[in-house]
Amino acid sequence: MAAPGENLRINADRLWESLMEMAKIGPGVAGGNNRQTLTDEDGEGRRLFQSWCETAGLEMGVDEMGTMFARREGTDPDALPVYVGSHLDTQPTGGKYDGVLGVLGGLEMIRTLNDLGIKTKHPIVVTNWTNEEGTRFAPAMLASGVFAGEHALDWAYAREDAKGKTFGEELERIGWKGEEKVGARKMHAFFELHIEQGPILEAEGKDIGVVTHGQGLWWLQVTLTGKDSHTGSTPMPMRKNAGLGMARITELVHEIAMSHQPAAVGAIGHCDVYPNSRNVIPGKVVFTIDFRSPDQETLDAMKARLEAEAPKIAEELGLGIEIEPVGHFDPVTFDEGCVTAVREAAERLGYSHRDIVSGAGHDACWVNRVAPTAMVMCPCVDGLSHNEAEEISKEWAAAGADVLFHAVVETAEI
Ligand code: HGY
Ligand code: MN
Ligand code: MN
Ligand code: MN
Fold first, then answer.
1. 283 alpha carbon to ligand 2 midpoint, in Å?
2. What residues does Zn(2+) 1 bind to (predicted)?
């Protein structure tokens, strides 16, 4: 099958306009987005995406997790479709491109195929995975995890947010609980375009990241229980200060990650302090540890050391401790054939590129378990993401979408 001509390019202006249009939905307070999963803003973003898909002549399917699948027919309707996509949900202080570029880059590819009247052999499906971020309902990549058979549907439906609302209730409330059985769809391949969310591509002046691997992840939720009491009148030796326990475990998390450099990271991004009053010693804290590494042994060793040493800290301080894994996936090696399609597309289009390991988790990390999968990355300014100041250039967006386009069209066969 002839590779698509190197002058086959997407419409960069139209892609940029769509990104800016979507960014108006669920605006943040500092120029980014707060379009958290299953909120009204998420529902509005879904409806906008749905209307664009209808205009592009795509047939929309929605599964039991609310994941959206917009299908463009191929010349061989029996051929397994090639899927592209990412996520439209954002962090509470998210950027305009994390996830969104992958969904709208896929849609832009369809629009360009329509403009050129090109029909591929395999159908193509553009996907919006529900709850990739895992910020409102842990864990991250929840819908793609159910799709890949990692989580049961009922377990996913029972996940609760900070206000005690369940995933299932909220999915129902915004009207996006589909009929389709999760995981019933079979894929010829899956490609995800995503911003790097790290500094390497920009620092090296590269247009494209050819993603060969993804880091593995452990999210461990720790609950420390002490005794809330008066910060003024309780003598120091009598205190059971859960806040102090969290501080020492925060230091331990950092030290564990630093002992496995360069291929390990660790931090605590979420914590709830009870009763969270200025003059009460915290009687209880709940926080989540995020450990990651591209190396399986390192990842598991970090978790094991935390589980061994954190209870000793709790004991010294007279605290109760509970450590509960709330998110996990092993390091990922993407499909050789799909990765090569991405690399050759970048080559053919004359974009500078380098192989790269994804530091962030993505839906592709789960889909890789059930279909040949690869990712395309473009740079982002200062490598900043999960921050409202996240920024990319129109050129970077277009380069990423061009490479996605070529890799997909080659795999879907003209
Ligand atoms: O946590 C992650 O890596 C992804 O951005 N949700
Ligand atoms: Mn993302
Ligand atoms: Mn993200
Ligand atoms: Mn494992």
1. 35
2. 87, 98, 194
Mean pLDDT of the chain, nearest integer: 97
Residues comprising the binding site for Zn(2+)?
87, 98, 133, 194, 386
Q: What is the CA(132)–ligand 3 centre distance, in A?
A: 7
Instruction: Pick the ligand that lies closest to the CA of residue 325.
Output: 4
Percent share of the chain, pLDDT over 70: 99
114: CA distance to ligand 1 center in Å? 33
Residue 84: partners with Cβ closer than 8 Å, 6 or more residues away = 102, 105, 106, 109, 124, 125, 126, 127, 190, 191, 192, 193, 404, 408
The burial class, CB within 10 Å (0-12 / 13-18 / 19+), for 337 is exposed
Q: Are residues 322 and 355 in the same domain?
A: no
Atom of ligand 1 nearest to the CA of 385: 5
Ligand 1 atom closest to the Cα of residue 141 is 6
Is residue 7 included in any domain, yes or no? no
- Domain shared by 315 and 188, yes or no: no
* Locus of tokens 């620092």: 203
- Assess if residue 2 is contained within a domain: no
Listed in sequence order, the residues at least 6 apart from 246 whose beta carbon sits closer than 8 Å to its beta carbon are 222, 224, 268, 271, 273, 282, 285, 287
Q: Quick one: which ligand is closest to 100's CA?
A: 2
pLDDT greater than 50 at residue 1: no
pLDDT at 268 over 90: yes
Q: What is the pLDDT averaged over residues 169-182? A: 98
Mutate to test the pocket of ligand 1, among 91, 141, 363 (most ligand atoms within 8 A of CB): 141
Task: For ligand 1, say whether the CB of 132 is within 6 Å of any of its atoms.
Answer: yes
CB 370 within 8 A of CB 183: yes
pLDDT above 80: residue 6: no
Average pLDDT over residues 202-230: 98
Measured CA to CA, the distance from residue 314 to residue 77 in angstroms comes to: 60
Residue 223 structural domain:
216-329
Residue identifier of the C-alpha nearest atom 2 of ligand 1: 361
Is the C-beta atom of 133 inside 6 A of ligand 1? yes
Identify the domain boundary among 311, 329, 347: 329
Question: What average pLDDT does the segment 52-74 reach?
Answer: 98
The CATH code of the domain that includes 118 is 3.40.630.10
Binding residues: 87, 98, 133, 194, 386
Are 80 and 203 within one domain? Answer: yes
